[in-house]
Amino acid sequence: MDTLMNILTEIDSSIVWDQENALIDDRMLDSFDIISLVSEMEGAFDIEIEASEMVPDNFNSVEAMRKMIVRLQGS
């Protein structure tokens, strides 16, 4: 998922995304970042991220985001 990594790097290039497991819990992403991220992900992956999906478990790590994307693409 190079596309996801590109999106994340555009949001903040100072974060080593693959090494973080608490992006939300440690407040590395703020609400504006999440809104930008959701918008970019929806467009790039042709998915719709409902409000119920916007929980820390889905955004705390790159792996969690990948899993959510795959799950939503299968819906």
TrEMBL record:
InterPro entries: ACP-like_sf, PP-bd_ACP. Residues 1-73 form the Carrier domain. This is Acyl carrier protein. It comes from Blautia liquoris. The lineage of its organism: Bacteria, Bacillati, Bacillota, Clostridia, Lachnospirales.
